[in-house]
């Protein structure tokens, strides 16, 4: 096992957090690649199309991650690179131009086209930025063409969303210098959840609110020094950097999971926008109480239970905080592929000091620790769940947490249930 090491560079001046040891690991990984993000991004951005430039493996991954979906007009596809492309026997840029032109001729409804890089396109160093620029000039103003990488080389699957949103930021219009202060919610949320948050901000009196990504990728909100952005997801490091390059400032907050996380997230925005405390409490109290009642249903199954997270979705830190502070679970290990200490500072502060925080992946060592720790529930990727179940461990698929609506007050009960269900199932099987 690696000796625990302290990562320098925590931006929070809280000594407990700054000094919190983090076990850093590098080794074999078992995660999906960034292409997976297309499954939820294409549902969110309804005028966008995702063209993966990849292999048959990439096409299979997308199909299986998306399930069996029958669309009259699908909004993602794979331009499959054949052996002769990979062997450099044809000009891939020419081939790509032909595929894109054919696609756009057939589909005038596409307003934003993402060329999505993959492992094969990166291995042969196919320059998709150059392709997007060249094709963009041909097809503007009807279609905006952007590119990002969804490859599985040194990434985990939620980084696909980060790369996609970071590609959108330079396209956002500049905010007028005398524009009113604007709140920007960042992170792809299901429409129903986004609407709940927009209603709450409206009731709070924050009316200049933008979202990234917008439902129509062409309706990008403006950005500039009067933008205060609030991350809805903990895995948007590159997007945050790109927004800051455009002058925006991050509002430090908990992530909106559970009654308290959602209250903290809304409160951080309300404070930034000078909302009266009494008014805040009046607006937020009904949702907060609803969420508290809803999560109580899962308390019996979860309270006092020990939980380990293997690194997968990058949601691990805020979810461990939610389960520890709101449901009385005991996090044993909280593993995350990448830990953004500044974005997760408030979350780390609330995770009990007994929990081991780890960053990076080394599957064998992590599995050894699960066997030694014997948690009641292990949250992990699909590839590790079956082997662990066969050894008698109860598991939860991390990817389900990304595909389910889990943010906000009205989803808090469902979020708790996602963790309670496998434990109840185990109890039933053991009877
Ligand atoms: S991008 Fe890489 S990891 Fe993802 S499906 Fe394609 S080949 Fe596999």
Task: Summarize this structure briefly.
The chain has 431 residues and is α/β, with parallel strands linked by helices. It is 45% helix and 16% strand.
Polypeptide structure, described:
By secondary structure, the protein is α/β, with parallel strands linked by helices. The protein is built from 18 helices and 14 strands. The chain has 3 domains: 15-30 and 295-430, Rossmann fold (3-Layer(aba) Sandwich), CATH 3.40.50.1980; 34-155, Rossmann fold, CATH 3.40.50; 182-280, Nitrogenase molybdenum iron protein domain (Rossmann fold). The strands form 3 sheets. The protein has a 6-stranded parallel β-sheet with strand order 1-12-11-10-13-14, sandwiched between helices. A 4-stranded parallel β-sheet has the order 3-2-4-5, with helices on both faces. Iron/sulfur cluster is lined by residues 33, 35, 54-55, 57-58, 61, 118-119, 150-152. Iron/sulfur cluster (SF4) binds at residues 33, 35, 54-55, 57-58, 61, 118-119, 150-152.
Largest sheet: 6 strands, parallel
Count of strand segments: 14
Overall CATH architecture of the largest domain? 3-Layer(aba) Sandwich
- Tell me the CATH superfamily of the largest domain: Nitrogenase molybdenum iron protein domain
Distance between the termini: 37 Å
CATH class wording of the largest domain:
Alpha Beta
User: Roughly how much helix do the residues carry, as a percent range?
Assistant: 40-55%
Radius of gyration: 22 Å
Name the bound molecules: iron/sulfur cluster
- Write down the CATH topology of the largest domain: Rossmann fold
Q: Classify the secondary structure makeup into a structural class.
A: alpha/beta
Strand-residue proportion: 15-25%
DSSP summary: helix tally: 18
Adjacency order of strands in the biggest sheet: 1-12-11-10-13-14
In terms of per-residue confidence, which ranges show pLDDT below 50 for 5 or more consecutive residues? Answer: 1-17
Shape, per Cα inertia axes? globular
Number of domains: 3
Mean pLDDT value = 90
């Amino acid at each position: 096992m690696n000796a625990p090491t302290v990562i320098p560079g925590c931006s929070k001046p809280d000594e407990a957090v700054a000094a919190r040891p983090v076990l850093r690991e590098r080794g074999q990984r078992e995660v999906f690649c960034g292409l997976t993000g297309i499954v939820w991004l294409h549902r969110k951005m309804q005028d966008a199309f995702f063209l993966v430039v990849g292999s048959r493996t990439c096409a299979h991954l997308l199909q299986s991650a998306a399930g069996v979906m029958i669309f009259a007009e699908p909004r993602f596809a794979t331009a499959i690179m054949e052996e002769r492309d990979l062997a450099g026997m044809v000009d891939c840029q020419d081939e790509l131009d032909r595929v894109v032109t054919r696609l756009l001729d057939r589909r005038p409804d596409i307003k934003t086209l993402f060329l999505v890089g993959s492992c094969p396109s990166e291995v042969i160093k196919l320059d998709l930025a150059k392709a997007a620029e060249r094709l963009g000039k041909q097809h503007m103003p009807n279609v905006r063409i952007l590119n990002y990488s969804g490859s599985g080389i040194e990434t985990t699957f939620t980084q696909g969303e980060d790369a996609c949103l970071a590609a959108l930021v330079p396209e956002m219009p500049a905010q007028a210098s005398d524009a009113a202060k604007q709140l920007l919610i960042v992170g792809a949320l299901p429409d129903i959840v986004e609407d709940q948050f927009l209603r709450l901000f409206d009731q709070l009196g924050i009316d200049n609110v933008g979202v990234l990504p917008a439902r129509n990728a062409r309706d990008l909100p403006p950005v500039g020094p009067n933008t205060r952005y609030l991350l809805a997801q903990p895995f948007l490091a590159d997007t945050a950097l790109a927004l800051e390059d455009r002058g925006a400032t991050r509002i430090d907050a908990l992530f909106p999971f559970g009654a308290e996380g959602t209250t903290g997230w809304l409160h951080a925005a309300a404070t930034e926008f000078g909302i009266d405390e009494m008014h805040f409490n009046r607006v937020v109290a009904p949702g907060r109480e609803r969420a508290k009642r809803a999560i109580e249903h899962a308390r019996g199954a979860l309270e006092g239970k020990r939980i380990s997270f293997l690194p997968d979705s990058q949601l691990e830190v805020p979810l461990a905080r939610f389960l520890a502070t709101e449901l009385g679970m005991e996090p044993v290990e909280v593993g995350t592929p990448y830990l953004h200490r500044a974005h997760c500072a408030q979350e780390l502060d609330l995770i009990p000091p007994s929990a081991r925080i780890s960053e990076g992946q080394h599957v064998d060592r992590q599995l050894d620790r699960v066997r030694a720790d014997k948690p009641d529930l292990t949250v992990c990727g699909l590839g590790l769940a079956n082997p662990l179940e066969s050894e008698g461990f109860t598991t939860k698929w991390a990817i389900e947490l990304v595909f389910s609506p889990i943010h906000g007050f009205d989803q808090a009960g469902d979020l708790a249930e996602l963790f309670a269900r496998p434990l109840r199932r185990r109890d039933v099987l053991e009877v």
